[in-house]
Amino acid sequence: NAGVTQTPKFQVLKTGQSMTLQCAQDMNHEYMSWYRQDPGMGLRLIHYSVGAGITDQGEVPNGYNVSRSTTEDFPLRLLSAAPSQTSVYFCASSYSWTGGSPLHFGNGTRLTVT
Amino acid sequence: TQLLEQSPQFLSIQEGENLTVYCNSSSVFSSLQWYRQEPGEGPVLLVTVVTGGEVKKLKRLTFQFGDARKDSSLHITAAQPGDTGLYLCAGLIQGAQKLVFGQGTRLTINP
After folding, report:
1. Helix %, strand %, coil % for chain B, to 5?
2. Pairs of residues, one from chain A and one from chain B, whose beta carbons lie less than 8 Å apart
3. pLDDT digits (tens, 9 = 90+) for A49-73
4. Residues B17-49: tens digit of each pLDDT
5. Cβ pair A44, A36 in contact under 8 A
6. Please, are residues A52 and A68 in contact by the beta-carbon 8 Å criterion?
7. Are the beta carbons of B42 and A99 separated by less than 8 Å?
């Protein structure tokens, strides 16, 4: 199994451009989430989904959109990139959102906005 | 404001020493997890603690969940260079569907 796959690994955008970060998992996990990781800030939750058709906001949702049309895929959209969105983005999935379920992470997308 | 405060944020010690990393909050968590992250990779789960006062051991690593389920600690005995990495605690907010992370502790074990 591939686990959680994120594409692309690296991306450079100009301010105002839009793009979609892709995330796919092949473990039939119901719960999927997006985090951003910045130095000294740990991982901050952007959006999450507890199943197909259901999404909700995390700690830092502004400037990002998500959708969950299938169990496998959970893309993250940046509508108009800003330098403050320069970060490393991680997608994660879990078979359940209840306590004890481990999050399985992808290897991240490093995004630079100039 | 960080919901989970980890301390210290940086720790550099010699091989063979012991160390403790703390994860504190004013909120109650349904469960708390500890992850380890290597450069260029996503975090990998080390342990999950669910019950207040619970202690779990993973070889030289000991994890404890506070009685009130607001804090946790990670103790490493006789640290080795292979323990070097970023350690992250993460708490499942009680009644919510969100797992929030601390800032992380970057640990360096010098040979």
Report:
1. 5, 55, 40
2. 69
3. 999 999 999 999 999 999 999 999 9
4. 999 999 999 999 999 999 999 988 999 999 999
5. yes
6. yes
7. no
